[in-house]
Design goal:
Layout (H helix, E strand, L loop, with lengths): L1 E6 L2 E5 L4 E5 L8 E11 L2 E3 L2 H4 L3 E11 L3 E7 L4 E7 L2 E11 L8 E3 L2
Antiparallel strand pairs: 1-2, 1-4, 3-9, 4-5, 4-6, 5-10, 6-9, 7-8
Amino acid sequence: MYAIVRSGGTQQKVAVGDVIEIDSLTDQVGDSVSLTAVLVVDGDTVTTDAAALSKVAVSAEVLGRTKGPKIHILKYKNKTGYRKRQGHRQHYTQVKVTAIDAKKLSSSGEKKGS
């Protein structure tokens, strides 16, 4: 079983035990967080119905904080002597998916795969 979860404007595919990086959260290390499921796949059953997905709980544990790669930004205008150099590193929170609770799914909104 796996799920597609939404966090911070991005979507990621997760299964139980996966360690992922999501946009920075204010939760402390060891806290439990809940992620919003967009799609759940359990064998041949695919669930995309919003009403059914509101009952799905994807829980994760905060492992720590990380930073993304350094991005270099250089602005330059020809013949004017204008140069501006800037850098950026995005802050992330590393979480480990502990459970995908999809036991409460009803038959509405489910599709059988072929």
